[in-house]
Amino acid sequence: MTAPLSVHGLTAAYRDEPVLWDVSFSVPEGRLVGVVGPNGAGKTTLLKAAMGLVRPVAGAVEIFGQPLERVRREVGYVPQRGSVDWDFPTDARDVVEMGTYGRLGWLRRPGAEERRTAERCLERVGMLDLAGRQIGELSGGQQQRVFLARALAQDARLYLADEPFVGVDYLTERVVVDLLRELRDEGRTVVVVHHDLSTVADYFDTVVLLNRELVAAGPTAEVFTAENIARTYGGAARRAEEMGRDG
């Protein structure tokens, strides 16, 4: 069976400074995968490379065994909330409806069916009652739910989420976790950049430990060990684990 996400010798750099170095791994289908490592480890860069937002220096990323261009509709992406312009004048329903655009093609405009899809996805994340609210007026947790709903509207087979739990309240975190588990149970694959070491074992089936280079990747019960955490975080490992955030 072809892996939903395969990374082959990926090297990436910003201004000639390496961020990822010769990273290779693959994740199995129908898994909830955590990408874990300290600040500056290249976690976000990894997802951006998978989405074609960062051009690798070397290596490649394959989605279901193919280049992204051939299977883009099969990938849903939730960026970091801090990277979004929340002043853009649109409401929550319209943001979620944008998730249907990839399947419409260039010649069709969204209609009643796409509107119903958006509303179903908003309901799934507990946001239907705020569908008409301007996106910038929502709280951080509400904004994160809307962007998850947009990804749901894409009806993808692979979801990539960059730190979806940052800056959200406890209730939103539980909603997000339950939703990601539902997607996993439906046979989708979900890859999440995550920062809280204290919840890794509870949230994820599979973990990728990254610090510019790959430290380990595999089933959480086998890979998420004290030894591998120490190799990933170095001297900051204990403090990161105690504080529940990147070291």
Automatic annotation (TrEMBL):
UniProt keyword annotations, A-Z: ATP-binding, Nucleotide-binding, Transport
InterPro entries assigned: AAA+_ATPase, ABC_transporter-like_ATP-bd, ABC_transporter-like_CS, Metal_Ion_Import_ABC, P-loop_NTPase
PROSITE patterns noted in UniProt: ABC_TRANSPORTER_1, ABC_TRANSPORTER_2
Domain ABC transporter: 5-237
Any Pfam family: ABC_tran
GO molecular function: ATP binding; ATP hydrolysis activity
Keyword tRNA processing recorded: no
Family: Belongs to the ABC transporter superfamily.
UniProt name for this protein: Manganese/zinc/iron transport system ATP- binding protein
Species whose genome carries this gene: Georgenia satyanarayanai
